[in-house]
Structure formats: structure tokens, C-alpha cells
Amino acid sequence: MTIVNDAAIVAELTELYMKYEDALCNNNLEVMDELFWQAPEVVRFGLAENLYGSDEIRAFRASRPTHNIKREIYNLKVVTFDSNSASVTLEFRRVMDGVERQGRQSQMWYKFDFGWKVVSAHVSLLPI
């Protein structure tokens, strides 16, 4: 039986997502790698890049600019579908080239025997 939004699992995933958000805003590559599935099947669609597999994602993160990467998140929603799968969505504000931009992010998480991992991610900006 599928239980949607089991409170304990929502809390666990929210804590993991906030760990990811902190790592993202502080460019902690080790933690970001730890939370993403290390497999050729993982996908991350970014602002201007389509990344397939953990090697491409890792290379992108290692080469991205780290200046002014902090952001404010809001409308964080964690939805669990059973004890092994969840979606995380949010909106964010970030200053880019002196202009405040709004964006959105979605992630699919799956709980493997070795823990929760992001298996798919998407980030996009709203038009100015």
C-alpha cells in the first residue's frame, strides 16, 4: 500500500534537502556528490546544460563559477510516495549579474540500500 507523505519520511527528506542546499550555496562538492546517485543513469538539467551521468554532473560542478551562488529558497515541497521515493520542488531567488532572478528546481529522490539519493534534477529560471 502506498502511503503519501509519511511524516517521518518527509522530515528525513527535508533534512537531507537542506543539507544539499547548504552544500550547493557553499560549493561543497563532496556533499553534493554524496547526495546524488553515482551512476550513468542520473540526470541533471540545468540553466544551460544537460548533464547525463554522475561524471558529467561532477565535472560541471567542479568547473562552475562559485562567486555569488547563494540564494533564497521558498515554497519547498517534499512529497513522498512510499518509503523509497519522493519529489522535492522549490522556488528560489538569486542575484545574477546584479539582477534578481527567480527560478525553480525539482528533484526526484530514491532510497537505495545505501541511502537516499537524487536520481533526477532540473533547475530553470523564469523570464525576466
From TrEMBL:
The record's Gene3D superfamilies line, in alphabetical order, gives:
3.10.450.50
- Name any one Pfam family assigned in the record: AtzH-like
InterPro entries, alphabetically?
AtzH-like, NTF2-like_dom_sf
Give the highest taxon in the source lineage: Bacteria
NCBIfam families for this protein:
HpxZ
Q: What is the protein's name according to its record?
A: DUF4440 domain-containing protein
Organism of origin is: Dulcicalothrix desertica PCC 7102
